[in-house]
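Notes from the 1:1 (GR / supervisor)

We went over the backlog. Supervisor wanted to see one worked example end to end before approving the batch request, so GR pasted a single chain during the call. The sequence is below; no edits were made to it. Supervisor asked that the structure be written out right there so they could see what the output format looks like.
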Amino acid sequence: MPANPCACADHPFADVQVLAFDVFGTVVDWHGSIVREMQALYPAVDANAFALAWRARYQPALARVRAGAQGWAVLDELHRAMLEEILPRFGLAHLSEAERRQLSRVWQRLDAWPDSVAGLARLKTRFIITTLSNGNIALLTRMAKRAGLPWDCVLSAESFQAYKPSPAVYRGLARVFDLPAQQLALVAAHHEDLAAARDCGLRTAYVERPLEFGASQVKDVAPQPGNGLHASCLLDLARQLGC
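Structure output shown during the call:
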């Protein structure tokens, strides 16, 4: 096993025992997966525009739940409601109930980024690895089973009845593992998620996913202050952590 750089007292992850992962965009390629499925099932539809339109309703849907304007609903239910909103725009209002249900569950069938499975397997040799996602437990479990994601634990916003970036999610993680916040780290491709985790005392690592929204909307993945680590992919993160 490689030497452990975390053994140095001044390493930002020296005390970390648990790595918690954002999933959508960080570990799995939601955009590319939806595009591939749409191209196979409905080739006349602009698959890129469809994927982006569906995802554009994600944060507003979560915001309604956080604000109390809508009661608690798991993400599978919210994804179905978002889908219903966009189907007419893309000429798919004719889809049957079975077709709508099948399409709405594409989020359970997302493909991992090419480095994810190997990167997680390496990180698992030194750390407990868990999801910390807004996805619900059934969604995350089915996704992991299909994509071969080797989680030690599956934690969801559903576990805490709150959606990120609510502090209840990050504090709930500490409660589940009975650890102080500084012994936990969030790994994500989203700076707002990482900032919220830091506000709750967690360590943070940013992972570059420049094509999260596809080639038409390349993300700026430049390092930002505050994150303890910045990695090009999960294999790079494993290397930096001596895994």
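Supervisor's comment: The first strand starts at residue 18 and ends at 21.
Batch request approved.
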